[in-house]
């Protein structure tokens, strides 16, 4: 049983650039892992295939044992509800409050106002953001803004959280704080896949690491194989 499985996945962009070649791996329920590699190695492409922002040229991506090639049209939006996404730049709506930003995915799903309020407050509480519910993103620190982005990605209880360089703009202390937050998610049943090129941070986390090199899966390192940071 896996939450996510890549079977011999290749991706060639229109114009001929090959971003991924024959990549295979599986993610277990409640597992947290990293994907790393140099700039251009294919990390973002791998995450885009999971969100159906791109499609593989060859091979199969299975999500919750379902072949994503069969997920088309209106079913794409349904699939995306199961994948929470955290970006390097939090991509918050700057003219909406923290609470409104976090509630947005639930509004889009047509949830009732009362239920949205409850879920948003519980999520803000969990991430230590409850006192900032009515603040605008511009009134928050960089670390708080990133936590709001994470709250928004988690509010609809996704099966998998994917994060693309989520600590790219943060100092080491805040990065560690965000990573600790991610590391607590598997206990609640959410699997986590983080793309990062911060090797120091990755080593400290002691989680499984997929290493991409020019689109190929060069290594799949178990936590116990990681050298001390
Ligand atoms: N839409 C696209 N069209 C053509 N080529 C693309 C497209 N998106 C990415 N590429 C190419 O595919 C390769 C992999 O890109 P990708 O963004 O997945 O790498 P990455 O590991 O995430 O890099 P970075 O760390 O710099 O974000 C790169 O050579 C890139 O130029």
TrEMBL record:
Q: Which GO terms describe its molecular function?
A: ATP binding; ATP hydrolysis activity; transmembrane transporter activity
Q: Which UniProt keywords apply?
A: ATP-binding, Cell cycle, Cell division, Cell membrane, Membrane, Nucleotide-binding
Localization annotation: Cell inner membrane; Cell membrane
Give the primary localization class. Answer: membrane
Q: Where is the signal peptide?
A: none
How this chain sits in the membrane, per its record, is: Peripheral membrane protein
For the keyword Ribonucleoprotein, the answer is no
InterPro entries, alphabetized: AAA+_ATPase, ABC_transporter-like_ATP-bd, ABC_transporter-like_CS, ABC_transpr_LolD-like, Cell_div_FtsE, P-loop_NTPase
Q: Name one Pfam family in it.
A: ABC_tran
Gene3D superfamilies reported in the protein's UniProt record: P-loop containing nucleotide triphosphate hydrolases (3.40.50.300)
Q: Taking every annotated instance into account, which residue ranges of this chain make up the domain ABC transporter?
A: 4-229
GO cellular component assignments: plasma membrane
Query: Which biological process terms from the Gene Ontology are attached to this UniProt entry?
Result: cell division
Q: How does it assemble?
A: Homodimer. Forms a membrane-associated complex with FtsX.
The entry's function note states: Part of the ABC transporter FtsEX involved in cellular division. Important for assembly or stability of the septal ring.
| Family listed | Belongs to the ABC transporter superfamily.
Q: By what name is this protein known?
A: Cell division ATP-binding protein FtsE
Instruction: Give the organism, scientific name.
Output: Lysobacter dokdonensis DS-58
């Amino acid at each position: 049983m896996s939450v996510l499985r890549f079977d011999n996945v290749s991706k060639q962009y229109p114009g001929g650039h090959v971003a991924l070649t024959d990549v295979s791996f599986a993610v277990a329920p409640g597992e947290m892992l990293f994907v790393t590699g140099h700039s251009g190695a294919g990390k973002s492409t791998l995450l885009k295939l999971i969100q159906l922002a791109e499609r593989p040229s060859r091979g199969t991506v299975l999500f919750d044992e379902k072949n994503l090639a069969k997920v088309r049209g209106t079913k794409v939006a349904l699939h995306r509800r199961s994948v929470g996404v955290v970006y390097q730049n939090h991509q918050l709506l700057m003219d909406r409050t923290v609470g409104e930003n976090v509630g947005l995915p639930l509004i889009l799903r047509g949830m009732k106002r009362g239920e949205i309020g409850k879920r948003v407050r519980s999520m803000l509480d969990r991430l230590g953001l409850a006192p900032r519910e009515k603040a605008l993103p511009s009134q928050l620190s960089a670390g708080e803004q990133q936590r709001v982005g994470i709250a928004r990605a988690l509010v609809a209880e996704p099966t998998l959280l994917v994060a693309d360089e989520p600590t790219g703009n943060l100092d080491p202390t805040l990065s560690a704080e965000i990573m600790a937050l991610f590391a607590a998610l598997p206990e609640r049943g959410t699997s986590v896949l983080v793309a990062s090129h911060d090797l120091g941070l990755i080593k400290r986390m002691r989680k499984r690491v997929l290493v991409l090199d020019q689109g190929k899966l060069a290594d799949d390192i178990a936590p116990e194989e990681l050298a001390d940071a």
